[in-house]
Every structure is written in C-alpha cells, then in structure tokens.
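Lab notebook, bench 4. The sequencing result for the construct came back, and we need a structural model before the next group meeting so we can plan mutations. Quick request posted to the team channel:

Model the 3D structure of this chain.
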Amino acid sequence: MKILITGSTGLIGSKLIPLLSGKGHTVTRLTRTRSGTSLNTAYWDPESGEVEAGKLEGHDAVIHLAGENIAGRWSREKKSRIEDSRVKGTMLLSRTLAGLNSKPGVVVAASGIGYYGDRGDQVLTEDSGPGEGFLARLSLKWEDALGPARDAGIRVVNMRLGVVLTPDGGALGKMLPPFRLGLGGRMGSGEQYWSWISIDDVLSAIYHSVVSEDLRGPVNFTAPKPVTNREFTEALADALGRPAFLHVPEFALRALLGEMADEMLLSSTRAVPTRLLGSGFTFRYADLKSALNHL
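Done. Here's the predicted structure in token form:
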C-alpha cells in the first residue's frame, strides 16, 4: 500500500514508519518542511491553509497524527495552539482528501479519550456520550473536522487514544526518573481511572484499523483492563523494584499544572476497547503488569 502520514516525527509516528516500511508499504510524510521534488514527502501548513494536494493523490490510506504537544500548563495561548493544530489541521486535510481525483480508502485519525471527560468508575464504550471540559469539547471538534472526508465516501476511524505507554516519552517517560529513585507515588486520591495502552499495541491497532474494512467511526485505543492511578503506581514500582510511598496532593498538582492537572491527571476515564476487540484485534499486552515488565 501507499500510505500518507502526518505527525511522522512524533511519539507514535516515528515508530510507525519503520513498522510500515518493514511490511513493504510505501510511506509519504506530510510535513511543514518544504522538500522540493522529493517523492516521499509533501508540504502543508495548516495555519495558512497551504498543502501540496497533487502529492496526496493516489494514496491507499492516510494516518493522521499531527497536533501540538498537549503536555504542560495550559495558558490561553497554549490551549489555542492545541485546538488550532488539531481542528484546523484536520479540516484542511479532510477537505483536501475529499477533493482528490484518487481518494484514499481510509483515514485513521488521532483523537483522545478526553472526549468522555471525568466519569468516575463508569465503564465507557464508543457509544458513550461526550463529557465536559476543554478536552471533551476539543475532541468533538477534532472528530467533526473529518466530516468532508466521510461525506466523500472515505472510511474514517477516530482513534480515541488513552495513555500511551512507552519509556521514550509521554506519561511513562516522565514518570520513570522519579520512580527509579524511589520517589514515585499516587496522584491525588489515586482512585481515578487511567485508561492506558502499550506503544506496541497502538502501532498494531493502527495497522489493524487500516486493513479492517468494517471498522469505522470512534474506536477506543485502550487496553481491555483500565486501572486506577493507585494501581498504576503500585505496578510501576513493582516493575522497577522500587518503593512508591509518596503522594502528590491535588492542590500541588493544580498549583503546578492548573487546568491540565484536573483534565489529564486527576480526571477518571474508564474506557474499554469494545470495537477493537469486536473487530478481531488481539492485544499483546492486555494487562498492565505484562506491559510494564516488557517496556
């Protein structure tokens, strides 16, 4: 297959490209760096609305991962960049693909379980409604931006990503240094659910979504067994052979990270991958202990 990827230098994209290339597929990177006549890259600028549409012709699939890094304190400017990078970029890509003479058969596009908001211990499937807050509103707009592609007959998969576990970055990458020093601990009450997924299963699930023609719409990219923050803390400490007795209180997290702490660290989202499992996908790491021991 000929596959177009945005966000190719990110945490997921940088690992996905070698996997696809190793399977014999041809990968084109859609980047914000002009590359002249290169056949393996195409240029776009979501801010200006510019895109080399001609280089997008003839791809079998598109994997859309681009977006501003969501980590860090959310100032008004940061939130604006987070939203614009996702909504404007997705809308530009969606409209461009819809207007091609040779359209792709499928777009697998990033979204997030922030769609569900803070829902306590409620089990959340893809049929659950949206929650409240910045991430829920953002996810709605993000997924709606693919409307032109859907209307043009392109199969769209919205991958609602949970906490992606890899030692190379993201949440786990930031947690490893203090935990290795025995300075880890639960956040807030520790009773909030974290819906996680290993990087290996993310990559496999993306490929599965590309080739599974019956899979469409929102799909929870989470492992089958979400855990509480307390359980996550204990499992990580056990995998590293270190104690984890410390506790970061809610007020400290809010003082440090503001709104982001409430929506990403203290929020409880117990999402399960009903549609992935129903489509025949098999997780390599379905439980947290095996995932962390491997990672």
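The chain has one domain: 2-230+255-294.
Will bring this to the meeting.
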